[in-house]
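Collaborator request, handled under Task 6.
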Amino acid sequence: MRKPIKTLLWVFLVSTLIFSAHAAINTKMLCPKTNKDPYERNIHNDTVTDNYHWLRDASWPSIKNDKIIKHLKKENQYTKNYFSYHTKEQGILIKEIKSKIIEEDSAYPVKHDNYYYYRKFIKGKNNFVICRKKNNLRAKEEELLDINKLATHYPGFRIGSFFSSPNYKMFAYSADLKGEERYSISVKNLDSGKTDSNVVNDAIGAIVWDRNSKGFFYVKLNDQRRSTKVYYHELGKSESQDRLVYKEEDETFPVNIRKTSDNKYLIINSYSNEGNEIRILNIENEKLFVPKVLIIRRTGQFYDIDHGHESFYLKINDKGKNFRLVKLKGEKFNKDNAAIELIPHKEKQYIGGFSLSKDYLVVNVRTNGVNNIIVLDKYGESKEIKFNEDAYNAYGYYPTYKSEFVRISYESFITPPSILEYDFSKNKIYTRKEKKVLGGYNKEQYKSEKIYINAGDGTKVPVSLFYRKDLFKKDGTNPLLLYGYGSYGISQYPSFNTGIFSLIDRGFVYAIAHIRGGSELGFKWYEGAKLLNKKRTFLDYINCAEELIKKKYADPKRIVGYGVSAGGMLLGYVINERPELLRAVVTDVPFVDVLNFLLDDTLPTTPFHFKELGNPKEKKYYDYIKSYSPYDNIKLQRYPAIYATAGLQDRRVAYWQPVKWIAKLREHNQSNNPVLLCIDMTSGHFGKSGRYDDLKKRVLMYNFILLNTGISLDQKQPF
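Structure tokens returned to the collaborator:
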């Protein structure tokens, strides 16, 4: 009996191999054919031919070229065909993830005077509903805004800001219908229930009411979709009558607005990657809507302000790159106006955001890459809040100026999103709400840890890790999903994701590489990987992958790279230089055609990037950017399996970047690994906003990862 069984096994193995090879060949043969139309550019006496330049529609942001639309649809059909062979698996994953989610839930409320405001999700609905109750939480619910109704006919819909007026009679909200980050502001009368739609158009999402509830401030986009002007809109008047409050002349400094904790001042922040400048405006007196500069801009100077206790509080890097916090005695910061130092600059402590209540000040700090929270009272006494997990994300703030407790948003790989409150007087933390996870979830079955990797130059790079205890062997056989970003000073922290358990419960290790270019270890961590040092970001990621292999956290043949936006630039570099390092790559809206993007200063966000990556009109930056730009360095070689997404309305990473990248990769790829692209024809950089839409997107990602690491859905272990 043994011999026939052995023969059958051999037959099965050989047929499987033949089928796999045949499927791989067919996959490659059925790829959409991308026509070439050579386009030459000559910069600094360097002539480059771009065969896929034609994929950028000349009328963008409108897409009118039928040839391009037809090609994008072919790409989507090809990807759809790939996944159509695995619809059963996708169904299993969707059911698996949904089984963990409470579909009907509400957020912990915020109290504004006599009103309690909160969001709630209704079972079967994609988006949330904004509600409030008066006097107490047992009162009748008042529905302010149902996002589901607003989004009904707009698949790319995204809600921006939403605020009640100070007298609680009006409700203003901003909405982006197509994912273009071009918002319209509407105002609802809460007494009559009538909504005045599109009161203001072509704005960013921010809204700040004046103190008298007569109108609001907003930021207008110019013809190139750059945020340069701040306006005041008075209710009942047309947009054409709006008052210009401030205009930023330097388009490399986008403008944003917010108000101080005590609601007395409008803050107008002109910011860039090399400094910022803040103007303040008293919003209590409409006759004095004239902003005043707090500290004039200069290269390398960053600061932030807030107001409360009849004083300005200032975070500034004048004494060191990681900032110090001071209290001003007036509206100016100079030698004649001495400041009281509350938190001095420290080399290993980075000061982040801060806010005020009527009695306290809360400051978020990072010490050696760990988030902690410092609370001070009006008399200068301070207490520090610390947490027990090795890898987590915590942020403290006062939801209103009258709040008695610090509110803390807390989560980790293991702990679901939670709202905590800290009582300074009792030095005690209360858990107000922890998001429930269904399906018998037991956090004791999982482990997170933080380790440090030796980079090529001797620097230690933190890596946060998450895995299931009974499935992690630390013998080099666990598949690994390695996330990286490392740009613009944006820090990446562990968060709870019900979807990721579809990988973790099948033996995956999930890792976040806190590579240079972010600010996890302070401002120098960011500065160490920008401009002419940008490659440090990419090399750190490679070092992390190699060391995780050496430390037996990962199977060297089953590492999957994951990156979003600038994370695409990272992974694009890695697969060009070290294609054997990764088995597969998943990248959302990847920033990959870097050099061509930076050479086109007509695009909305290009000027902002000059101070992060350099302006290629200068030869030293041109040469350096060209040496790492993923699109410009694609080679004839074997590439890993690739799955990329794009948004047709994306103003940050225009659709043609990933489309061109995928076309050129296929042209040069010497392997039979799938190279797929999914273009969302109705959304932008952040995708669809609905929770079920996001779930479907993630299911495709997880399915792709499992298929290309050889992990069967049957390998899932129950909670």
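The cover message to the collaborator said: "The chain has a mean pLDDT of 93. The first strand starts at residue 39 and ends at 43. Please let us know whether this matches your experimental observations."
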